[in-house]
Protein 1
Amino acid sequence: MPGSSIGQRLVLTSFGESHGKVIGTVLEGCPAGLAIEEKEIQKMLDLRKPGQNVISTQRKEGDVVEIVSGVFRGYTTGAPITMLIWNSDQKSKDYENLKTKLRPGHSDYPAMVKYNHYNDYRGGGRFSGRLTATHVMGGAIARKLLKVALGIETNSFTSQIGKIRMEKEFNEKMISSIYKNDVRCPENKTAKIMRDNILIAKKNGDSLGGIIESVTTNVPVGLGEPIFSSLESDLSKAIFSIPSVKGVEFGSGFRGSEMHGSENNDLYTIKKGKIVTKTNNSGGILGGISNGMPITMRIAFKPASSIAQKQSTVDIKTKKEAILQVKGRHDPCVVPRAPPVVDSLVALTIADHALIAGAIKPVL
Amino acid sequence: MPGSSIGQRLVLTSFGESHGKVIGTVLEGCPAGLAIEEKEIQKMLDLRKPGQNVISTQRKEGDVVEIVSGVFRGYTTGAPITMLIWNSDQKSKDYENLKTKLRPGHSDYPAMVKYNHYNDYRGGGRFSGRLTATHVMGGAIARKLLKVALGIETNSFTSQIGKIRMEKEFNEKMISSIYKNDVRCPENKTAKIMRDNILIAKKNGDSLGGIIESVTTNVPVGLGEPIFSSLESDLSKAIFSIPSVKGVEFGSGFRGSEMHGSENNDLYTIKKGKIVTKTNNSGGILGGISNGMPITMRIAFKPASSIAQKQSTVDIKTKKEAILQVKGRHDPCVVPRAPPVVDSLVALTIADHALIAGAIKPVL
Amino acid sequence: MPGSSIGQRLVLTSFGESHGKVIGTVLEGCPAGLAIEEKEIQKMLDLRKPGQNVISTQRKEGDVVEIVSGVFRGYTTGAPITMLIWNSDQKSKDYENLKTKLRPGHSDYPAMVKYNHYNDYRGGGRFSGRLTATHVMGGAIARKLLKVALGIETNSFTSQIGKIRMEKEFNEKMISSIYKNDVRCPENKTAKIMRDNILIAKKNGDSLGGIIESVTTNVPVGLGEPIFSSLESDLSKAIFSIPSVKGVEFGSGFRGSEMHGSENNDLYTIKKGKIVTKTNNSGGILGGISNGMPITMRIAFKPASSIAQKQSTVDIKTKKEAILQVKGRHDPCVVPRAPPVVDSLVALTIADHALIAGAIKPVL
Amino acid sequence: MPGSSIGQRLVLTSFGESHGKVIGTVLEGCPAGLAIEEKEIQKMLDLRKPGQNVISTQRKEGDVVEIVSGVFRGYTTGAPITMLIWNSDQKSKDYENLKTKLRPGHSDYPAMVKYNHYNDYRGGGRFSGRLTATHVMGGAIARKLLKVALGIETNSFTSQIGKIRMEKEFNEKMISSIYKNDVRCPENKTAKIMRDNILIAKKNGDSLGGIIESVTTNVPVGLGEPIFSSLESDLSKAIFSIPSVKGVEFGSGFRGSEMHGSENNDLYTIKKGKIVTKTNNSGGILGGISNGMPITMRIAFKPASSIAQKQSTVDIKTKKEAILQVKGRHDPCVVPRAPPVVDSLVALTIADHALIAGAIKPVL
């Protein structure tokens, strides 16, 4: 299977281009009998959509989801669920001068070579971050499935923008605060500073990156298939599909590699009759398999590649150096729009593994 | 497909257990007409094998590869290549008391639950690092294929052990120095300190983690399939199959998320008539597709979970806390044995993508 | 991957239901650079569409294809090609009384049990022959790809309706006659008798089955992958996805099993400098691999299950026997509408194998 | 995935060549907790093995199975089960003169072209019927799994050799008679005539084909995934992997296509409180899904291609016509050795679907 699909039992296929007619999702393998409404999906899409505030791109997309197959009288049928979003606010003219001048940090150059110039380059085409909306459509369903079938909750949030980090460690009580600000950082005070930094970067025609953390609770013990479908393998595969992601770590991650085994090992104990670990440096995954502790990931986003500053580049037609100034409407920082995307990909992956392991049945 | 296979066109299937009769590999999709000898595979296996020196486990395994299918008169035939290693030096008795006492940091507990106690727990069974030898058998072939067909070279090395890091940035001239010391660090002076630190940890009944860096050169522009088979997605999926890996980053990775777009963007220029970038913060991958620059990864290994110190844990039979002291022969640090494994998984993934993209043909 | 997708390198995903909003196709893996227009696809769809004449169902569907992704300025881009047909002429009320009375020969009963009554039963839902239009959308592209890239032509036709068979063996000169009559039988005289028989069956509230033959020429030697992706394996898998198909044979097929080896073996000879066989009892496939001779299949279609006669059945609600009279508009014989569907599935399978074998490259 | 593997949740990978060191099977996805012994597998292998009697090839292979992974203390562990058979009685010299003279009916010519002469041609190499022993190793386990988990039984038998057919329709009482004669035909009297015909063909340096019928009982309602993983699609895909198979039909099959709908439709009724059909023209499959009735298939085998008579052919070296006389030890009719192979592929496919549909759980 080429690259537009992900999953073994719960398979999401994404289609469409940034400036094409439509973007869409086919989700196959969702158990029959799950109650689902468009408005539940819309709610999650709205948290990702552009043009919400001053720190995101001013492209105005309603991003209205339409379910066109797989749901009958309010319930999933077991057939593939197809969802569409019609594109409306493309400004393709902004991209005409980019046809030859390679945008640094973007896929323009490798895509041109790979597809011998046949690719739809407008707005990044198939490589655009806009396509992550297709993951959110499927993810909203996967997230509900996990909640209904197993009580699993997955939440992610902005923990760092540029060099500004959250002061405290995340805890479950913070969940309700994540969407209380534009930055999706549960520490309101820190969020303010992050927002200011984004606006400064924007004013300077520059951009910022940051870090998203993801926490998934109530995962049953035993999800993940050794060796190559470990939870870490499949979660990282899903997360690295997001443009701009350049790093993924689980539990203590890179920090853990500086520790001794005696520090990093999570010791077992009994709590309320259940086997748990005292710490969670493993991020809830041992040997690639869930151990019942929360699954925790940290995800590094590079600063957005589209910046308003002039950059030196190459004109592929003349094969000479040239100066490029990217126009169009861009996010000075994509991180605040990423939590619904991360939640979606995490939910899709864990739901897939719950189906593989038999923890969720093919019909609810 | 469950978890024992990886790849789309070049598919590696791994089988066997740490203390079973055999471990082995079926590699399907390798083009017909590649000259390959057992000794080429053996050479790479020898760099991974245990018992080589004081800083690795004292389990003595010859790890002798035997090709039993798919090669005829010295050339690959296009049929699946099967390679076996017969286990010889298992000491399964060491694991009998572990049947009920959960080893912290290991897969024992989730594996027991997942397989309802039917799993072969001896030496970690299917979850053992020993299984990475099966990746090396396939990887040695993939690495040769890449070299012969496209001139691609992939090399990895130890860049950090615990808190000890290499002083300089890696450059291609260092490649010949990687295997000049036990630690597989191309800076000999630093390697010595790393080695000392490992021996101290060993003496304390403790363990250390570290970081492996991987560099792949001569990759043609255009490998990787949007969206979910991006090179980052598939490389990370492969790498996270290695037990102990808890983090993966490409190019500037986590560090890049603290930079501005104007710093992190790699500007294009022309060098010897070729389009290249002045820096390589992208790690050779843009939009999930290779851009012709070296592919660079950093991989975080946690400290080995098997330590000689007493640890508090839970006895799953009594469901009570218990004290555990792991016996057996273990690596105080697995990082020095990891470079051939990383090279193998990188080579397998890139060769798979070269086949998908048509850069390598099904018959040489 | 569940059941809505087929193919390894050229992957068709089918979605939608008979009486839902839309039916559609995502075709991934088609090489970039193929010129394609909606009208080329429409032409093939029109040959399948209902309501064309007195021997097919009177459901009137325009079956108008709309390409919504993957084609840019008249050429495929390498991205997934999505095509939609909006349903218009459903009469779902006809199916309300069928909710409980099981229609003999249809999927109603197993589907109900499988999906615990959540399935969309209207018009057969996901199981309807209507879904074969999604194969034709993808098939039209695959057929053009084969023609352009390799000169391969695939054609199928009606060779038998009920007990009425063609008098002569098919030969290539007959191709132009296939669509000269409603029955799609290249022997005009026989077609007339077939048509009469269908009309008699219709008048009696009954239905007829028949046989489609498929001939594919110009296939290069060497397509097909041993053992489980033999051409026969993958062609039959594709063809058996058509509702009503209950038998598939290649070359001399069932007849060949009554022959001696000395009769059935196709002897090699040289013709115009090319190695060919004197006969083609193998149907162009040896050891699962194309041998350069025309690929020939015969496909058995059962008589349509929807008949106007009263039938005794079971009411699943009362769990008692009941009398059923199926209303609605049905084909008295589906065979005449099947050739474009067979051509599509054959073209998709052979194009997939041409990509796997490297005979067609990922970019034209 | 290339062609050496089959299945989605229960995946069989076959490796080895006819005259190589070993042939083997990796079976992944078999639930943990199934009791299995080598002797159970051996029993089924023995029914397939060559050299059993005068009507089969005189190649003497012990075909001794050795389980080398995935079974621990008598039970499956959930890890891939690897089974090996070491080849012993190859006479590769017989094949040296065949290197250039193409054997009619065999894969020699397309294989040579496909692999550019790198393939192992000895004894048909990868294309040999010998490889079906790898399916039997996996099939023996699948068959036991079906029996233990769901009470499913699958049996096949010879119903026709050349033009000699069984007189009566098969019924379940005949099962115990299948292996009472060399031909595997439950009608002893007919078996005798079949045997005589095979011996006559052998004496004439000729060969015969025939038909195998397969009956699977106790299949639960609801197995099979629409559209492309219908039971018919996946069963035919599996069965057409057997060399010599050229036709597959379900239920009334080709015969049914001559009937009217009113004759061919299976009417529902209630029997012992269960919904059943009065006839079984559907072969137990409606809309690609099992309906609870026995699954019935008829499978056409061509006459064996290796015959002792002189045949005219082409010498690929001289590119001229040549006379070929195949030496070596061959089956005058492969049909009598096929029932265990058919049973295996049917069992593997149905077990795979039982896992997909959740009828069998990942841990018993």
Protein 2
Amino acid sequence: MEPIKNIPRLCRILGYEFTDLTLLDQALTHRSAASKHNERLEFLGDSILSIVISDALYHQFPKAKEGDLSRMRATLVCGKMLAEIALEFKLGDYLKLGPGELKSGGFRRESILADAVEAIIGAVYLDRGIEPCRQLVLNWYQSRLKSIKPVDQKDPKTLLQEHLQGFKKPLPVYTVVKTVGEAHNQTFTVECMVKGLNEPIVGVASSRRKAEQIAAAQVLELIKK
Amino acid sequence: MEPIKNIPRLCRILGYEFTDLTLLDQALTHRSAASKHNERLEFLGDSILSIVISDALYHQFPKAKEGDLSRMRATLVCGKMLAEIALEFKLGDYLKLGPGELKSGGFRRESILADAVEAIIGAVYLDRGIEPCRQLVLNWYQSRLKSIKPVDQKDPKTLLQEHLQGFKKPLPVYTVVKTVGEAHNQTFTVECMVKGLNEPIVGVASSRRKAEQIAAAQVLELIKK
């Protein structure tokens, strides 16, 4: 395997000196390149990112409701945001990819870049523990945390409604078509019908509201294309 | 509002003494009971639980693949498992619910119980920080972590197939009914049909496999009742 390029430069960009550089090496290794790849580190990094961002949002927005906090968190930890961070780090230049991925431009693929950022977070966590890792992630997210607002974030039902209103179309119709189970442990099946769709899309969940959100999210996916 | 019942006993059961008991009080307060309720704490607790369990699984299974780790984590942090823990704590006896929820048996509802466990985790985290919180959660999960195995975990499609085979029913049929978007950015609509259902359940996602899993998960929810 080729040696990793200019690792000291990458560490300067990341703002972190690894005690154990093999962790960084592994975090940069896609599964197409070697058997010791970054997926397990990504698994760890995903959870660490979540608690660091959750804690930051919790304290930054002492009056925000849970729904707003969750939506802001989802925005900050989504693949698109992580890929953006990866591009700032020029992470694509440092990734180890297998021949197939190299040929098809894997170093530019959003999901590969996002996964590598999570893997680096996991590597830092293993290298020096939660607090140094938290400080680093907060540095990376400084401007993003500064600019995020609760009102920017909306749930699928709201987004669907606004999307339809934007095109002057009628509002979606939600119908509970089935309820199964005992009173305290029910499952709701909800249909969401939107003009222009051939048939309603179904959402199933443990509450009517959740089932409606699931259905709305899927309708959005469909009609936004 | 009624005073919380026998809080010292609850602390003994949880295995934790709060420095700030108002945090525990808030964690036990459902949004139906007061404006200062447990949803923000639940938001925090959810992420803390995730990193504690992720870290434990990462070290307990040094050779497990990311997929197996993710499935084990999903099992350990799911609502059903959290509700089980809540029942062990007899948490329903300590919850503060509004009149409507009290009347409809909210203290037995799985989602309310699960959310309260996450809120308590969030409260402990705020009370004394990540390490004491981690130790407590690991105590609660000791036997569950001991018994979990990578092979126990299965995806919705596998679970659905096995469920149907167990009842000697025909296998589910998956059909791609729609594909929208350009080649590298498609959305797939898949129908999953199972004998005994009146109509197929639809899954929509960015890959055929994910759409099938979404549909299978919803069919499972429906037929398991």
